[in-house]
């Protein structure tokens, strides 16, 4: 099983991402984009935070704490990827503006075709091995084929078969979760998820980075005077990243079968998975707090 996973890691990662984006697309209609016109300030603030403020926060975090190599690459990947469909669900549970969350997710997902490879190049080029170059065109191609194309396919399915779309979305999302589970199990069996080697100090740094992004997502909407529901949507959008995409990019540029970058890739993968676990726990706390304080002014 471990050898099979290492050999086909990329396809595990690609399959789970394609399923996640088909599931997301099967829930989107033209009505979900009304906020782009009706709430231009909130959309603009949310998009700017995702594409500018979050990468800048990651840059400052890396420089101020002197973080380097695999951990730095993991943080840069987290900052370069957009939010995912989970952020939309969590926003709804937290009584935030779900339509705004969906709009920001969609805008930043489309934009990431260009922004993700650019942000990665700017943030981590200096941390890569001397003989390694960032495959920007390859990353753009993979985002197009495994992120945007499945998203469009899901939206088309919803338009053609509206009654069946909820079932497609449900099972696609479930399939994606199974894919992530298979990646965790396969990586663990291959000895690639070694917390002892990763280090407790690095676990603390991953948690600190999650809280740092939370602070960014909370403070900027507050400074712009956005509504409570809008600020909640943006805050969760910032914290809940599309880790599915991060795992795919990691598998693409640091494949498990490549011995020369295996250790570096292991650190990147564990950083992504740890962030994913911490963001889910933190989101559960935020949802609990916002559901019980939704009547209070922000």
Structure report:
α2 (9-25) packs parallel to α8 (136-160) and α6 (85-93) crosses α7. Helix content is 79%, strand content 0%. It has a single domain (2-292), classed as Na+/H+ antiporter like fold (Up-down Bundle), CATH 1.20.1530. It is mostly helical. The longest helix is centred in the C-terminal third of the chain and has 31 residues, at 262-292. The model has no long low-confidence stretch (mean pLDDT 84). The chain is built from 14 helices and no strands. The protein is globular, with a radius of gyration of 18 Å.
Gist of the model:
The chain is mainly alpha-helical and 298 residues long.
What is the topology?
Layout (H helix, E strand, L loop, with lengths): L1 H6 L1 H17 L8 H5 L1 H26 L3 H12 L4 H9 L4 H27 L11 H25 L4 H25 L5 H4 L1 H24 L4 H12 L3 H11 L8 H31 L6
**What is the first-to-last residue Cα distance?**
51 Å
Main sheet? none
Q: Sum up the overall morphology in one term.
A: globular
C-alpha Rg, in Å?
Answer: 18 Å
Tally the helices: 14
The helical percent reads over 70%
CATH architecture: Up-down Bundle
Q: Give the count of structural domains.
A: 1
CATH class: Mainly Alpha
Beta-strand segment tally: 0
Low-confidence stretches: none
Strand share of the residues? under 5%
Average pLDDT taken over every residue? 84
Structural class: mainly alpha
Secondary-structure element order, as H and E?
A: HHHHHHHHHHHHHH
| CATH topology grouping | Na+/H+ antiporter like fold
Could you list some keywords that capture this structure?
298 residues; Na+/H+ antiporter like fold
């Amino acid at each position: 099983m471990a050898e099979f996973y290492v050999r086909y890691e990329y396809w595990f990662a690609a399959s789970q991402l394609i399923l996640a984006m088909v599931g997301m697309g099967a829930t989107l209609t033209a009505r979900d984009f009304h906020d782009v016109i009706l709430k231009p300030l909130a959309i603009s603030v949310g998009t700017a935070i995702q594409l500018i403020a979050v990468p800048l926060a990651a840059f400052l975090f890396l420089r101020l704490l002197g973080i380097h190599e695999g951990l730095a690459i993991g943080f840069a990947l987290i900052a370069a990827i957009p939010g995912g469909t989970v952020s939309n669900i969590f926003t709804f549970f937290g009584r935030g503006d779900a339509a705004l969350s969906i709009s920001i997710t969609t805008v930043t997902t489309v934009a990431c075709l260009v922004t993700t490879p650019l942000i990665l190049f700017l943030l981590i080029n200096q941390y890569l091995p001397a003989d390694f170059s960032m495959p920007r065109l390859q990353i753009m191609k993979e985002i197009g084929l495994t992120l945007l194309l499945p998203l469009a396919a899901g939206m088309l399915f919803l338009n053609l078969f509206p009654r069946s779309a909820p079932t497609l979305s449900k099972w696609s999302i479930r399939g994606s979760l199974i894919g992530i589970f298979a990646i965790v199990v396969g990586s663990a069996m291959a000895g690639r998820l070694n917390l002892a080697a990763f280090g407790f100090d690095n676990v603390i740094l991953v948690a600190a980075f999650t809280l740092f992004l939370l602070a960014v997502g909370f403070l900027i909407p507050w400074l712009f005077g956005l509504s409570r529901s809008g600020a909640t949507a943006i805050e969760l959008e910032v914290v809940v990243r599309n880790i599915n995409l991060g795992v795919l990019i990691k598998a693409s540029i640091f494949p498990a079968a490549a011995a020369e970058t295996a250790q570096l890739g292991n650190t990147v993968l564990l950083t992504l998975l740890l962030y994913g676990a911490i963001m889910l726990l933190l989101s559960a706390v935020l949802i609990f707090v916002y559901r019980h304080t939704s009547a209070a002014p922000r």
